[in-house]
Amino acid sequence: MNDRFLRACRKQPVDTVPVWIMRQAGRYLPEYMEVRRQHDFLTVCKTPELAAQVTLQPVDRLGVDAAILFSDILIPVEAMGVPLQFLEKKGPVLGQGVRDRSAVEALRVPDPVRSLGFVLDAIRVLRKRLADKVPLIGFSGLPFTLASYMVEGGKSKDFAALRSLMKDDRKAFASLMDKLTEATIAYLGAQISAGAQAVQIFDTWAGILEPAEYQARVFPYTCRVAEAVRGKGVPVIHFTESCAKLLPVLKDLPVDVLSIDWRVPLDQAAAAVGPKFVLQGNLAPEALFRPRAELEAAAGDILARGRKAGGHIFNLGHGILPKTDPEAAAALVAAVHRLGRK
Ligand code: 1CP
Questions:
Q1: To test the ligand 1 pocket, which listed residue (20, 23, 29) has its Cβ within 8 A of the most ligand atoms?
Q2: What pLDDT sits at residue 1?
Q3: Which of 1, 217, 225, 263 is the most buried (most CB within 10 A)?
Q4: Cβ distance 124 to 54 under 8 Å?
Q5: Cα separation of 276 and 261, whole Å?
Q6: Terminal Cα-to-Cα distance of the chain (whole angstroms)
Q7: Is 154 helix (H, G, I), strand (E, B) or coil?
Q8: Among the options 4, 23, 127, 305, which is catalytic?
Q9: How many Cα atoms occupy the beta-carbon half-sphere of 109 within 13 Å?
């Protein structure tokens, strides 16, 4: 088996730097668009056979060192009682917005085996089909980012409703975070029992908060999730989209890997968090539009900076963009394997 990704997560020696790509299954792949012409996004997520099929597409085409389950961080919110739709141009739409105590009280903490069985089935199908070719990563949103979608009722630019709930009803916000923490721990535990070999926890929007507020009102919940998951014996990767100013807080996270967005040079991130962490990242997704020689030079620069960290897993600094040429993505993977050789 190609286990360089798991070995790197655990700081064991590797022959070359492992690489996978955030959102590696998705709209830039013609074979994904072919599946999407016949099925809407939620149907793909909820049909284990289809979810497994699109998960494997980038593994076959790009030669990445890990597969990541095809799903979405918002899938469990439906099981908690919030209606979920994905509209073609608008993105996710979630009910009326969970904006007061009674709406928080109405949320369920679901049993993932009963209400999210399709995700667990997809994981089981994938472990069989991958036959240990590469490891399978499971994932979940973290309470704060899930809360942001639930409170706003969808994507947001200013997070006004979330900010007012945090300011005006501290108890309701804390109780929402509590429920999401319990739900997330159960969901990730079920993914690991079904066969996920590592998990990535996404807190995409944590960077909208000041570090002190993040530390007091979000970080403790993230730690609860990370500790519970780590207790199950698989590596945990933490991602936030704008991590620079949070690094002094994130350096105390009980996780193995910190995924760094493209705004912070990887060696600077390493200096901020110390050698305890393996760092993941962090090529800007736009670099894949550059001529091949420039793309390789940019990858080489990131590999050099990554040598200053406690360990390095190559990735983009955020999700791959829909206009990316799949050939460029394959060239990047090959370049990382070549240039990262030990
Ligand atoms: O039209 C389509 O086919 C749907 C596009 C799409 C895809 C391919 C969405 C809608 N989600 C996904 C898959 C997805 N989302 C994965 C699959 C595994 C992979 O290949 O990486 C993962 C891990 C996610 C995670 C996710 N969804 C995050 C966290 C990571 C990040 O990018 O910051 C977030 C914030 C979402 C919400 C979401 N789902 C989809 C959209 C368009 C959005 C963003 C909405 C917004 O801007 O707020």
A1: 23
A2: 86
A3: 225
A4: no
A5: 18
A6: 19
A7: strand
A8: 23
A9: 14
- If you take atom 6 of ligand 1, which residue's CA is the nearest one? 26
Peptide bond into 315 cis (omega under 30): no
Locate the ligand 1 atom nearest the alpha carbon of residue 27 and give its number: 3
Whether residue 36 lies in the annotated active site: yes
**Residue 275: Cβ within 10 Å count:** 12
Q: Is 70 in the pocket of ligand 1 (CB under 6 A)?
A: yes
CB 203 near ligand 1, within 6 Å:
no
CA–CA distance, 54 with 35 (Å, rounded to integer): 8
Is the beta carbon of 226 within 6 A of some atom in ligand 1? no
Tell me the C-alpha distance between 78 and 85, whole Å: 9
Ordered domains of the chain (ranges, CATH): 4-11+21-265 (3.20.20.210)
How far is Cα 169 from Cα 163, in angstroms, rounded to an integer?
Answer: 10
Rounded distance between C-alpha atoms, residue 127 and residue 111, angstroms: 22
- Taking CA atoms only, the protein residue closest to ligand 1 atom 17 is 70
* Average pLDDT, 10 consecutive residues per value, the chain (342 residues): 96 98 97 98 98 97 98 98 95 95 97 98 98 96 98 96 97 98 98 98 97 98 98 97 96 98 97 97 98 98 98 98 98 98 94
Indicate the burial class of 294 (C-beta count within 10 angstroms; 0-12, 13-18, 19 or more). Answer: exposed
Strand ranges inside the chain, DSSP E: 67-68, 84-87, 91-94, 136-141, 198-202, 236-239, 257-259, 278-283, 312-316
CA 70, 232, 81, 47 torsion-angle sign: positive
- Indicate whether residue 91 lines ligand 1 (CB < 6 A): yes
Is the entire prediction scored with pTM above 0.85? yes
